[in-house]
Automatic annotation (TrEMBL):
This is Endonuclease/exonuclease/phosphatase domain-containing protein. It comes from Hibiscus sabdariffa (roselle). It comes from the Eukaryota. Residues 4-80 form the Endonuclease/exonuclease/phosphatase domain. Coiled coil: none annotated. SUPFAM superfamilies: DNase I-like.
Amino acid sequence: MIVLSWNVRGLGSNMKFSAVRKLIRKVKAEMVLLQETKKEAVTEREVAKLWYDDAFNFVESSSIEKLGGLLLIWDSSKFKMEKCQVNVRYIPVSGIWANDLVATNWLNVYGWRLQRGKEIRGAKGPY
């Protein structure tokens, strides 16, 4: 199993997107956990451009005013997700690796900090 975890510090620029795509394709990652995408939404089309074939699935947690943002992508022919809970700061996923029938748990987490006294529109605590 090849797992890639990377705090990308923003996935919006073409240069960063290309670098992430090249690494995912080079190592043929079976699961990718990206932190700090800084994107309000990641589309299926964007994920398809990152991935190396059509066998993928993903979940994402949107950023809030350019803070955070999580993306978890996996090879759907190798990992079968059973449970998932999306939160603004973390995404826990449970599932089975198809080849080995091994149950695994994964946690994609990003613990961004707020400056004291700063308020974020649309955020619902606690964080």
